[in-house]
Design goal:
The protein has 237 residues and is an alpha/beta fold. The chain is built from 9 helices and 7 strands. The chain has helices at 6-11, 20-31, 39-54, 70-78, 102-113, 132-142, 159-162, 179-189, 206-216, and strands at 60-64, 85-89, 152-156, 169-174, 193-201, 224-228, 232-236. It has a 7-stranded mixed sheet, with helices on both faces. β4, α8 and β5 form a beta-alpha-beta unit. The longest helix is centred in the first third of the chain and has 16 residues, at 39-54. The chain starts with 5 loop residues before the first helix and ends with a strand.
Length: 237
Amino acid sequence: MKDYSPQKLVSAFVFDLRHPKVADVIKKVRSNHLSYHNENVLRDLAQVAINNEKRYLEGAIVETGCGSGGSAITLAAAKSKDRMLLVYDVFDLHPPPSKEDGSSALQQYELIASGKSPGIEGNLYYGYEKDLCGKVLKSFSDFGFEAKENNILLKKGLYSDTLEIDSPVSMAHIDCDWYDSVLLCLNRIEPHLVRGGTLVLHDYWEGSRKAVKDYFDRVLKSDYVFSRRDALQVVKK
């Protein structure tokens, strides 16, 4: 039997320099301003996907919250060509936060809705792009990961309408900020996470932190290993 030990998964989190292609992709993602995440965050994300392949974990990779596509492109570089990558996003302006998200999120959304939110390094904020989905698809191709050939599927719309998981998930990157979105993603994705699989959660907003707490307070915490790096990583035992 394969060794899917969560403890080994966590302790092995040193970026695998035997994958120079992935490191090059991460540098290009950053230089092209396709992600708000720093290089360490993207390396950690890539390492989870690389560990999937090393341990022959079954299941798709799911990303909820794509932005300009930088993290999804990083995952495409780190995964095997045959593994499905499902990318969910509205590919438009964020839906509004709720009262669960707190005043900072509400203020941030007011700035976004005003049309004055800055993008990365002075670029256009991704939510203002007229065809963000098309732009992300083009970025995949520009990086050498044409979507169909690499089993990449972009699903446009609200998570409540599009996020239906009916097969195993080896990894999920949940980066959708608001309480309602994060909790919905956990409810629909986590039950399909395989043993040894990993959730990567960016819980820097008040609402996203609360959603993570509310979800895992309802389940048996001893079934998971929690580790804190630049993002929260949750491994199912």
